[in-house]
Amino acid sequence: MKLLSPLKIGPIEVKNRVVSTAHSAFTDFFQPGATGERYMAYQERRAEGGCGLIILTAMHVHHTSQIPTHYVYEERDIAGKFQQISERLHRHGAKVISQLFHFGVQFKSDARDDLSPLWGFSGTASLEGEASHEMTDAEIEEVIDAFAKTASIAVKNGIDGVELHGAHGYLIQQSFSPFANRRTDRWGEYLYFAKTLAKRVRAAIGPDKVMGFRISIDDFLRPQDGGVGHEQLCQIAADMMATGLFDYLNHSEGKGGADYARAVGSYRHPMGEWLPLTRSLRQAVGGEVPLIGVGKIVTADHAEQALQAGDCDLVGMTRAQISDPDLVRKVMTGQQHRIRVCTGANQGCIDRTSTLPITCIHNPEVGEENRFKALDIPIAKSKKVLVIGGGPAGMKAAEIAARRGHDVTLADAGNRLGGRLNLLEKVGDASNLLAAISWVEQELSILKVKVLPQTLVDEAFVRVFKPDAIVVATGARPSIELDVENDASIPVISSDDAVQGLFDGNKFDMKGTRALLVDRRANYETALVVEALVRQGSRVTVITPFMHFGVNIGFTHLTDYLRLLPEWKVEVHATTALQRIEGGQVCFRNGFSGAETLAEFDFIVAGVHAKPRNELVQRLSALAPTKTAGDVVAPRSALEAFREGDRCGRTV
After folding, report:
1. What CATH class is the domain 2-341?
2. 140-158 pLDDT tens trace
3. Which of 42, 178, 383, 552 supports an S-S bond with 523, CB 3.0-4.6 Å?
4. What gap in Å lies between CA 245 and CA 197, rounded to an integer?
């Protein structure tokens, strides 16, 4: 299998072709004074699982590249951390690269300690609308020196090499893009900055360390707007590789901002979406150096196909290894069918990166590696565990408890596992999330968990069963409570019924109907209800008290929805609340202007939170030690449900 074969990258050899590319995770690793332990444990877990090459979170080289949760290193502090992380990753046979970058004219400057402005080549405005400072000749030299110094610090402290980040619209990409560089001096010449930078960094690290380059292979920008385009970007990559300074080439897509929703596509985007562009990039470079292919490559088979087809020489499987850090190990040991495949949810990883530490919708271990290891101590005695409820929380609790050696029975009132997540079968691409359910169900079978479908659990059942421990994961029941004057002249249905096309338990044809969704959650669930209504042919209006649609949705999904809602002809009224339902009309009011609108609809969907099914909890607690997980605790999403179930399974 080519995926598992070694490869020379300049002066080093990687043991396999699997790469974890740089991604924003636990950026406090670079914060002076912080231990960085959480990040080191996270990356070591991927190395332990067999990853061949790990490229660390992008490292800011200069104080003029800083935003909230991103830190500029202090030399003595980062030297010790680099020594530690390189030793820990090397211990497992992984090679480690530090990615270096500067934001340039990206984001905003208001988080900087001294409120220094954005630095760029031509005083252009950022995507956020902030003006920038046009760097002087001396300031450009200062930034180049900072790259070289940072590279030197990395390789002197155990890191195998560095990668220059020339993608995502950051400073290096800005240097060769008309939208950001309109200079007429030497720094405006074709690739002058990029090549000068590369020469300086290579001189700083020497010939026995690796230097790579990352480029966007499409900037998604029209030439009249200052874009370069795929073909020219391929030529830029070829010209950079022709310098002989680089040992490998990596790529991504876009110029930052909303483009991340395409570069790191959710389940709405096809797997391997960018491999055709990877192939043409490889042709342009002519095999000069090894090429890393990226773009939602989440299965070992898909990665192997890309390698065998000659699209690339290594495969970026970053989200795949967030989802399952043992991906390589499982391939090596014939356990490929047990790989926990990334669903493309994005909710736990990239959609949290701007302000929050990452996690994973169905791998709660992410970011908790040390805490979970502490909990994974051998159990003193196997317990008879009863898990009540077969949704994500209950399934995960049963899996983890069984994995730890307990005798587990899972009882569910329904005829299939998955709970309310099964409703996603009706919502197109989002049904990919059901892969998380399928994987746990498979593990329950392998772990010999006894599953009792169509089983109602009450006190009598538990008294007969006599468990040593109970996990209640009974979920929540949908609600239609709108708490407004309502003469019942317009039917009101729950989100669950809307997705299924049900009214009073009966199927009805939504085609051509007018639906009002009263959105008081602004989260993933509400957005998926909109999608389900549209798919069933309803014309949808959304009213929400929040500032805009989807304020509680991650930015990659929100970007998709802001594109899709106009296509679906969905009408959104933000900062708007429902007032009353009367005489076949709905009255809603704008919270700022006070203006009221009367409109007619065929039905109303109550986009409100469900009600926990918690009636059993207190009564069962008197019979055996009882824990709760999922919507029975507080109705939220599958991400929280899986995590709470995991926690119960580890501590039962």
Report:
1. alpha beta
2. 999 999 999 999 999 999 9
3. 552
4. 11
